[in-house]
Amino acid sequence: MSAHLGTAERPLRVAIVGAGPAGFYAAEALLKQKDLVCRIDFFNRLPTPYGLVREGVAPDHQSIKAVTRVYDKLAAGTNVRYFGNVTFGRDLHHADLKARYDQIVYAVGAQSDRQMGIAGEDLAGSMPATVFVGWYNGHPDYCDLAFPLDCERVIVVGNGNVAMDVTRILVCDPAELAKSDIADHALAALRGSKVREVVMLGRRGPVQAAFTNPELKEFGELAGVDVLVDPADLDLDAQSEASLAEDKTAQKNVALLRTYAARGETGAPRRIVMRFLASPVEVLGAEGKMTAVKVERNQLVAAADGTMRPKGTGVYDTIEAGMILRSVGYKGVPIPDVPYDSAKGTIPNVAGRVTSPESNAVVAGEYVVGWAKRGPSGVIGTNKPDAAATVAMMLADLPHLPAASNAEDVATLLAERGADAVSYADWKILDAHEAALGAAQGRPRVKVTRVDEMMAIIRQGR
């Protein structure tokens, strides 16, 4: 370790861009180092911290959100500062951080979605699941959107946990959602929803599905909802049977699916139809609005790497629907002056060290964690070992890093540029406001969904 960097005489200065789980776990790993003295500054575009824990986790999954207690303790530490309401590339630039910090960590997630690449995908009523998630979670970017909930059937493409979440929210009893921190505008819209059926399309078979056992089990516990599975979809090919024997998660999934298939219809007012080996090939519509989806039946074939891949059979059917939500993968977006791999949608890196896409050379002092590092995979907890691995690289690099030359406090720079940065104490003002509104309604919180309203509450409480 450097004779000067990371000591009481010259603490290591680290900037973390993004304040979601990956960023907090990186800070935690740094602060746990007994022989390291460091100062960590978080920078976040929204006034509110926690990233996908606030803006991505489904409102009926409150237990998952309890992880913010760990982040709260970290942010309250004397060696950590939070700068919310600061946009990288506008209020603060790459060169500003490079001059003031010895190491920079990008924890910016995967903010965009992948498209299906089929005809009609741009028709009204066809949109990403991520946008729907942001809308019902009160993300300021999506709070003014409207969704065609006046239809009886919605199609969800994909069978990962995000697809499971949006499907569940669409058929969940609004009275149950009213006990959560779902955004008020979304709750009002869902109270008036006419959606009675959600069809989930998975292009591969049930053994290859990406959802987890708890998510699938939840479907069967929804009041007033039938879960329908065609028994023919559960007739497994030999290779799927073989892989099932080695995968306990898939075994439990298939067992649950067989339970649903055997149960069939009970006459519940709402239903989830889970289809496998089915790919949308065209979104059909009239007058610019989607009306149906053309679906092709697939079969599984073994790829060169031994995995089972879907292949179209040329057998089609059409499903009428008023909305289609795609959940077929996510990708990061480029941020100013930071390397970007457009093919993978990530920041190029080797073991968390940022690299130049042109030369593949390591960019000294710059690192990446989370989905921006590895792509959109895993759950919130997956980010903890991922961040620790990147921090190990940061520590290994310390002896070779020059100290940042500019000792000016970034807070001074932000003030000079007119940025009204939100401190962690400021966030706690907003947090207390939301919690008080929630307590009055028997809810965890009532979210403020507009940045100008957030800032007005914070300024009044300062």
UniProtKB/TrEMBL annotation:
Binding site residues for FAD: A22, L52, W371, G378, V379, I380
Reaction(s) catalysed by this chain's protein: 2 reduced [2Fe-2S]-[ferredoxin] + NADP(+) + H(+) = 2 oxidized [2Fe-2S]-[ferredoxin] + NADPH
Enzyme nomenclature, EC number: 1.18.1.2
GO molecular function, one term: ferredoxin-NADP+ reductase activity
Enzyme class (EC, first level): oxidoreductase
Lineage top rank: taxon: Bacteria
SUPFAM superfamilies: Nucleotide-binding domain
Keywords for this protein: FAD, Flavoprotein, NADP, Oxidoreductase
The protein's required cofactors: FAD
Record Pfam families: Pyr_redox_2
Location of the FAD/NAD(P)-binding domain: 13-170
InterPro entries the UniProt entry points to: FAD/NAD-bd_sf, FAD/NAD-binding_dom, Ferredox_Rdtase, Ferredox_Rdtase_adrenod
Protein family membership: Belongs to the ferredoxin--NADP reductase type 1 family.
Protein name: ferredoxin--NADP(+) reductase
Source species: Candidatus Viridilinea halotolerans
